[in-house]
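Help! Submission page says 'invalid entity' but I think these are all valid:
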Amino acid sequence: GDSVTQMEGPVTLSEEAFLTINCTYTATGYPSLFWYVQYPGEGLQLLLKATKADDKGSNKGFEATYRKETTSFHLEKGSVQVSDSAVYFCALSGTDTGNQFYFGTGTSLTVIP
Amino acid sequence: AAGVIQSPRHLIKEKRETATLKCYPIPRHDTVYWYQQGPGQDPQFLISFYEKMQSDKGSIPDRFSAQQFSDYHSELNMSSLELGDSALYFCASSTSPGGETQYFGPGTRLLVL
């Protein structure tokens, strides 16, 4: 079945450091891929998405490229800020098996000044 | 912009009681999804509705039921509550099922004592 495997955390970085959170997926069809962010005590917010191979999603300095050959959708940011501290979830949807979202286990990021 | 509205935001119940969670999707969104997020876990898909009909079913217990009404709002009914039902319950909406971006509400935090 469809699934998402996400880099385990927690991740602690200094401000202005480079961030990579790995995400790989298994899917029977051609899914859409998403990154959601969850700030403490809040709901999930869409960060970025890509709907087909080689698409790059970007938002707020974050980027992720849909790599079909490696079945990956790694999240990157060149210079993190304290305000980026949150839990990040990789997700996929829209394959032949249904319309639900499959989430990774989430990666907690803490950015220290 | 209008977002997904969930009520109540917090709910405390005792074992064996019932609870009803409500979700109001973004205007013109006809698809609603329910997710359960346990402490430190990723969201797990429960059930979804498209045009007032159940469209997909995930790991929803038999003690739970849900429906979507003519105004597209949805209610999740939970009976015979157990301690393990304590979680954050998210509702999401989209313009159609299958690969479209899901926009999440802030969640209802349920605590079963």
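Support: the input was valid. A stray whitespace character was the problem, and the output above is from the cleaned input. The longest strand of chain B covers residues 87-94.
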